[in-house]
Amino acid sequence: MFGRKKKTSSPDSSSGKEAPYSNNYYDPDLGPVAANDNDDDLHLNFSPSRERRLLAKIDLRVIPVLSILYLLAFLDRTNIANASIFGLQDELRLQNTQYNTALTIFFVPYIAFEIPSNILLKKLKPHLWLSVCMFGFGLVTICQGLVQNYSGLLATRFFLGLTETGMFPGSFYLIGMWYRRSEAQKRYSFFFGSTSLAGAFGGLLASAIGKMEGVQGYKGWRWIFILEGLLTCVVAFIFFFVIPDFPENAKWLTEEERRYVQVRLRKDQGRSAAERPIGFKDVVNVFKDYKIFVGGFMYFGLIVPAYGYAFFAPGIIQTYGYSRIQTQLYSVPPWAASFTFAMVIAYFSDRFKHRFAFTIMPICLAIAGFGILMVVHNNHHLQYGALCMVTMGVYSAMPVIVCWFNMNLGGHHRRAVGTAWQIGFGNIGGIIATYSFLPKDKPNFYRPGYAICISFICLSAASCVVYAASLLMQNRRREKAPRSLLTEFEKTELGDMNPEYRYLL
Fold this sequence. Notes:
Helix content: over 70%
Structural class: mainly alpha
Low-confidence stretches: 1-37
Largest sheet: none
Distance between the termini: 35 Å
Shape: globular
Strand content: under 5%
Mean pLDDT: 85
């Protein structure tokens, strides 16, 4: 299927069909000299100032749109925590761990369909797949506000997980196909910061919507779901026309700009093989690399405290003696602090072109925050400050980890599968998080939950050390190896396994 074919230098004039592999210079017999000549000529036409203008153009089209998309996805996913404060559990008569089970059921389809979703994203184009999924989870969120019992809540949470499955890995995959590794972290952190903004925005929105108690006979928690879901559906219609596709299909760029984006990425990451579909063999080959599994554990370890905070922070803050409205308002500052700190970390990470140290430092901050929460129970100001430390640490380290792993994967096929695997496997931690803070642990100040979070953060830190050591050893081994005699086609198929590829630490 992907074997060598006869060299074809131009479209077939007799049939009108384009030659195989013509897009993105992906010819099995393409020599490195010819490709580099084209690349060099194109670079001469782009001065540094023109490149900066092009990057600004891409930034304005790609990052804000995907950030808003994921902000609404995370808002619809976690607003159940705000709804719980306004009486969801009481009206639906949830008992024991039924609320926790409703949180858990979301992750079953969300985990299972990550990789298929990224394959569909590449096949159907991002603007179509992501906007359809967005409308789907907006509609399910509206339905969540109309449920009458526990069974209905379980059903809507399941379909919410199914429709949201492609949002996060799809957006990370798409961003990674637009930027070089050394300039990606700020963009990834801004995008990932939409989770923090969603938490802050969700608290403010819930405090206002909660005052609609009794309107049309509905409790305030129902209006939280209905209005936020309606907002998502409206935005989904607009985003069908504005969500960017991959660089090679971007109609809002000129032909020269499209080529230049592909050239600069090819020089940084190698050829992408964007024009051929992802097959089952590609998926299997990705999992032959042990670093793929290490990357999954890096993310998995931080998902537990991340969702532990997102789902249970309002309940924890309420134990400090605040009213329902005050609880929603006090949930905002920790999210705002995490967004600011994440952007600072991202700036210095890109500045120094380094990732490892900028995962360990925030992780240490999060561990310190959870440590305070475990031992201090009579100083609400200090406890609240510790919650800020937790969000700043966890939500700053996560985008660095995902960017670090994602941008070290070369080519469309390895990046599509690897990114989906990391997010999918990592979100198993979400299931653990939903049972980490149980009602029976409230008299014990939720100590078991904090201990669980610290344990998994340490797992993430250990995985980061293993991953960094692996990259360092492979880079050194490749530096000492003789020059590769592989063809450009073979290098493209190998992606980051190409011996000429160098990993970013």
